[in-house]
Amino acid sequence: GQNIDQPTEMTATEGAIVQINCTYQTSGFNGLFWYQQHAGEAPTFLSYNVLDGLEEKGRFSSFLSRSKGYSYLLLKELQMKDSASYLCAPMDSNYQLIWGAGTKLIIKP
Amino acid sequence: DGGITQSPKYLFRKEGQNVTLSCEQNLNHDAMYWYRQDPGQGLRLIYYSQIVNDFQKGDIAEGYSVSREKKESFPLTVTSAQKNPTAFYLCASSIEGAGGGYNEQFFGPGTRLTVL
Predict the structure, then answer these.
(1) Which tens digits make up the pLDDT trace of B85-94?
(2) What is the mean pLDDT of residues B17-42?
């Protein structure tokens, strides 16, 4: 079956760095997406990885290892507005996104 | 301004009534999707459509119906057959990629449906 595993909740301090891990099992693979979702709002796109390695985009970076079925999202210089849920979503062979429950990130001052 | 609109943001209905949630996009995207989100759970796919006048069931299509008469519009009807309809409903769209797959999905603001 298809499965996504992410920590349910993480806490970090403003200004620090946090890494959110995601392991996945899918039927086929066409890349992996990370989305940010603030409470009560829609998800917004953060990053996409289809090849192994690190993709950097400002304060956010995303890493993929296809052989390990593993990805992480790295957030640097954390700000209070980064408090949100982060959703890992690999795309399967039918180009459908498989959604994890997300990781709720709490930023403390 | 391009984007996806969903209306209304909050909707209340009595049990046993059908209700239709609207979703409109002016991004010229080919594919559109309906998801349901419940607290503490991931998004679950209800229906999707990759072309006008065609749509496919997702993982939890029972009790729902859709239509795709226009590229811009993909309304979702929550019927009285849906046993637990209270949820946050999200519509999304994506454009076909150069390699034949689909790029990232863009989401509307969502409709929170409460059935009393």
Answers:
(1) 999 999 999 9
(2) 93
Each residue of B38-51: pLDDT tens digit? 988 889 999 999 99
Q: How far apart are CA A63 and CA A51, in angstroms?
A: 9
Nearest to B112, CA basis, from B32, B21, B41:
B21
Nearest CA-CA partner of B64 in B31, B21, B24 = B21
Using an 8 Å CB-CB cutoff, list residues of chain A that contact chain B: 4, 30, 33, 41-45, 48, 87, 91, 95-97, 99-102
To the nearest whole Å, the CA of B80 is away from the closest chain A CA by 25
The C-alpha atoms of residue B93 and residue B74 are separated, in whole angstroms, by 10
Report the pLDDT value the prediction gives residue B1, as an integer from 0 to 100.
63
The answer to whether the CB of A90 falls within 8 A of the CB of A29 is: yes
Token duo for residue B21: 């949630």
Residue A42 with chain B: CB contacts under 8 Å:
90, 107-110
pLDDT (0 to 100) of residue B98: 60
* Sign for the pseudo-dihedral over CA of B35, B97, A1, A88: negative
Give the pairing type, strands B31-37 and B44-51.
antiparallel
Closest CA of chain B from A92, distance in Å: 10
The answer to whether B66 and B49 are in contact (CB under 8 A) is: yes
- From the list A4, A33, A96, the residue facing B45 with the nearest CB is A96
| DSSP strand pairing (B54-57 vs B44-51) | antiparallel
- Mean pLDDT (chain B) is 92
